[in-house]
Fold this protein.
Amino acid sequence: MNKSKLLKIIIAIAALVVLVIGGYVYKDAIQSRIARTAAVVSGQEIKPLLDSESRYIRQIVAQDNSTSRTIMWQSDSSEVDAVIEYRLVGSDTTQTIRATDKAFTDDGSTTYIHEGTVTGLTPNTKYEYRVGYGNDRRSDWYSLETAGSSVYDVLIYPDSQSGDYSAWEQIVKDSAHRNPRTALYISMGDLVDNGEQDYQWRTWLNSIRPLSANVPLATTLGNHEMYTLDWKMREPYAYLNYFAVPPNGNEIFNRRYYSYDFGDVHYVVLDTMLYESNHEDNHDTHHPDMYDVEVQWIRQDLAANTKKWTVVLMHRDPFQYAFDRPGASRDVGFDDEGVLFMPIFDEFNVDLVLSAHLHTYRNRGHVRNFNRDPSGPLYILTGIAGDRSEERRVGKSVDLGGRRIIKKKKKNKKNKNKKKKQKIRKKKKQKI
Ligand SMILES: [Fe+2]
Ligand SMILES: [Fe+2]
């Protein structure tokens, strides 16, 4: 075989490989383009949406999920006549509401966000919905089930931030497959590794596809949602735009902390990012009063709560480990968030407190008044769902967490004396 013939064969194989890979990567876009063309050619009244018109169709929890639900999706171009259409399963009567058309630009990429909240639904009822534009372009129908008072399954995903999101993608796929009755899924924060990097959000939103269109999502703000491309900090713009969680009544902190009801459970989602909000590397407005405002809000929220069960979701763990904050004490105990919020959880008889951030799982048992007490809330550190394992770093301290609580109390007197001696020694040194 001569050289030019061999070269032609290599080029042909390379072109075939590019076609196959390209076809796989853009399979959704190709499929939607073919379906749309077929509908236009055959004169169908309703035309399916192109992939670029219907990205990441997702349900987000509303305040009361027995009667309402928020629907979001994105498109590559502005669509001013975005609508959400819904109906009872088996009914021909549909209702339509308008959805927003909001441009959001981040990391050099612009997307158009469409969102709307369907209200006035009947509890414990099966609906279906679809999204679209004007009168003639529509997505497929997806199921929307309102909450009732029966027991339901929830999937809880801790930190999914990843270098390569394939493990996270597989976790969502497997867990959704194993739990087909999932009524709600929760992200505990650090959804992505870098909150400004567009490809990470696109990958994340693609990964939740086994659940997103048919099951409502509740998110929690994590510190990684606040990181900029150069690993400084900012307001979590992408996070706040992508997840239209229920309003909290505060314009400055809207969507950062919130609450919602699902069945017999009242969920309170906290923003535990005071450290990041006021860090010198945060180039946005600092919010030193954030926890004051949030404490006022949570007290009002819990006072008005009439649900049988109360669950708190917070990204930062209320227990303290020395490695968590530079310069933090080596004492294992409670961090600022624990000291601030745990007495409120006690006062309002919270049942369960879920946290994340440390990339490991621990069941700490029940704690009240900073001591083991079966009458207190149950504290669970939820683990990890991405590929950023910190297990080695967490090490033994976490294992000792529960035991040290009790130990610490006994040691208090001893510690006080020790601290006194250290102070005296320090003063002496300063004098020298
Ligand atoms: Fe994390
Ligand atoms: Fe974190």
